[in-house]
Automatic annotation (TrEMBL):
InterPro entries: PyrdxlP-dep_Trfase, PyrdxlP-dep_Trfase_major, SelA-like, SelA_trans, SelA_trans_N_dom
Function text: Converts seryl-tRNA(Sec) to selenocysteinyl-tRNA(Sec) required for selenoprotein biosynthesis.
Predominant location category: cytoplasm
UniProtKB keywords: Cytoplasm, Protein biosynthesis, Pyridoxal phosphate, Selenium, Transferase
Protein name per its UniProtKB record: L-seryl-tRNA(Sec) selenium transferase
Modified residues (N6-(pyridoxal phosphate)lysine): 359
Matches recorded under SUPFAM superfamilies: PLP-dependent transferases
Catalytic reaction annotation: L-seryl-tRNA(Sec) + selenophosphate + H(+) = L-selenocysteinyl-tRNA(Sec) + phosphate
Length: 559
């Protein structure tokens, strides 16, 4: 098969282009000039990459880069975006394609002079080094790393839910880097319990007789029902069979425990007699699931917690509650509607309450069970507890988090509540500070009289007023200050919002879109995660942690 035929064999999905005659004649010579892998790996810059990423990872990147270059030389055209994405594992932005194609084409062939620009191995080396760094950087982005949450969702599941406070983490460092008394009683030198470190204070806060923790709330519900209701029936309202995210559903989790769920009532209305009429000799428990991630409003009814507890106890069975959100604080104090709290449910007769550690509690991921001592002891002896038990980090972080509720202002020490407590005026000040910085590095001057334009984009009736500021007409972006609304997230306080302020970044013209702006923000040295609405990227101020605003000022320069 001749060179002309080989050059025409372009993989499916790639666009072919005319291959210059001079290029075809010299293809084999150019292929021979590709540096060997051994030579690349001996270069000082590559050795530095090995120190940073690891030898094997850099070696694989070199091989991928070399293969990409061979493909370019074989076809006389650039690697298509789809194949490039398969090689690097990254979803390529639409705006990346023309730029990358143009750069690689220019490197391969100078149409103006009708001759190859690649004349030596040194040029190939530079090409490969650039490609290797691109591959390594994209792979590095897939590692867990620090990001800036500018979504306005405080408990963002995809971003790790509740962040821990700096002071708390500082206290955890010596515990994580050394040995601890995780399961040792220092008074008598005998084996202790990993739950003792936080259980006393948590019982003091909630009024529970005892408590323990497993690795998340779904696990807490699973082990609770397995230990207390396996082989029996568990009665639950049909309107409480929630999906908790990731397509995991309460009925599926419960059925794994070996209990049989007995659904009563209807989606919107369930009465006490529905539970009572469903009781049989096989009934093992009443279960109430707090619908913390959605609301049913209008023509609704549900029996009071006290009524359910009394009815369950009259039949000699426990009343179990899956609270989910794990609220201990009064949400009204933070501008939200009242949320059911652990201590209130226990006081009203619940025998056990299951809840999360990394939601409204503001601590690490954990599933906590609090309530009657005899039930906790029975659960603690179940074999599943060994499989679901928490590690020393979680035990220590829970201990420190729970202690904060007793000895400190949680608004100052627990980031979740610090973010909730920010006023709209504080958020507006933050975004004004940010746009002032943007104006300074873009060379624009902001004055009291003409910097803020109240009508650069006239809002529709009912929409919030946006404020833009004068910018260089050559800028690809329009910036604006926008009043918004924020949510706690994480399947908590559904339908309840907090007033917010955001920096809006909008394309000036069709040369760039909001998706591309969002992509650029995510690929900054410190990734910035915002949200898109109406072809505008919004960076919310409420969810910025201490220091994030300063980082954001610097990162936006590279946008």
């Amino acid at each position: 098969m001749g060179d002309r035929d080989q050059a025409s064999e372009v993989p499916e999905g790639q666009k072919s282009r005319e291959v210059p005659e001079g290029f075809r004649k010299n293809r084999n010579e150019l292929l021979r000039k590709i540096p060997k892998i051994d030579r690349l790996m001996e270069m000082e810059s590559v050795k530095a990459q090995c120190e940073l990423y690891g030898y094997q990872i850099v070696l694989e990147a070199a091989r991928k880069a070399q293969e990409q270059l061979r493909e370019v030389l074989r076809t006389g055209s650039c690697i298509g975006s789809e194949e490039s994405c398969l090689e690097t594992g990254r979803q390529e932005s639409p705006a990346d394609v023309p730029k990358r194609n143009a750069d690689e084409s220019e490197c391969l062939y100078d149409e103006k002079n009708k001759e190859q620009n690649i004349q030596s191995s040194s040029t190939f080396e530079q090409y490969l080094l650039v490609k290797m760094q691109e591959i390594l950087s994209r792979q590095d982005q897939r590692r867990m790393q620090r990001v800036i949450n500018a979504t306005g969702v405080i408990l963002h599941t995809n971003l790790g839910r509740a962040p821990l406070g700096e002071k708390l983490v500082f206290e955890l460092v010596p515990l994580m880097t050394g040995y601890t008394n995780l399961e040792m009683n220092l008074e008598d030198g005998k084996r202790g319990s990993r739950y003792d470190h936080f259980s006393e204070n948590l019982c003091r806060l909630t009024g529970a007789e005892a408590c323990l923790a497993v690795n998340n709330n779904a696990a807490a519900v699973l082990v609770m029902l397995t230990a207390l209701a396996s082989g029996g029936e568990t009665i639950v309202s049909r309107g409480e069979l929630v999906e908790i995210g990731g397509k995991f559903r309460i009925p599926d989790v419960c059925c794994q425990s070996g209990t049989t769920l007995v659904e009563v009532g209807t989606t919107n209305r369930t009465y006490l007699e529905d539970y009572q009429n469903a009781v049989t000799e096989n009934t093992a428990a009443f279960l109430k699931v707090h619908t913390s991630n959605y609301q049913i409003t209008g023509f609704t009814h549900e029996p009071a917690v006290e009524e359910l507890a009394k009815a369950a106890h009259s039949h000699g069975i426990p009343f179990l509650v899956d609270l989910g959100s794990g609220c201990l604080a009064d949400m009204v104090a933070y501008g939200l509607q009242s949320e059911r709290r652990v201590q209130e449910l226990l006081a009203k007769g619940a025998d056990l309450v299951a809840f999360s550690g990394d939601k409204l509690l503001g601590g690490p991921q954990a599933g906590i069970l609090a309530g009657r001592r005899d039930l906790i002891e029975k659960i603690s002896k179940h074999p599943l507890m060994r499989a679901l038990r928490i590690d020393k980090f979680t035990a220590a972080a829970l201990d420190r988090t729970v202690s904060l509720y007793l000895k400190a202002d949680i608004r100052k020490e627990i980031p979740v509540y610090e973010m909730m407590s920010r006023s709209a005026a504080q958020l507006e000040t933050m975004v004004q500070e940010l746009v002032t910085e943007i104006a300074s590095f873009s060379g624009e001057h902001i004055s009291e009289t003409n910097s803020w334009l109240n009508s650069w984009e006239k809002p529709l009736p009912g929409q919030p007023q946006k404020r833009g500021f004068n910018q260089d007409a050559n800028s690809r972006f329009l910036f604006e200050i926008v009043p918004t609304t924020n949510v706690t997230g994480g399947g908590t306080t559904p339908g309840k919002t907090l007033p917010g302020f955001a920096l809006g970044i909008k394309p000036r013209d069709s040369s760039i879109c909001a998706e591309e702006i969002s992509h650029r923000l995510r690929t900054l040295s410190t990734p910035v995660i915002g949200h898109i609405q109406d072809d505008c990227v919004y960076l919310e101020m409420r969810t910025l942690l201490p220091g994030d605003l300063e980082i954001l000022k610097k990162e936006l320069k590279d946008l």
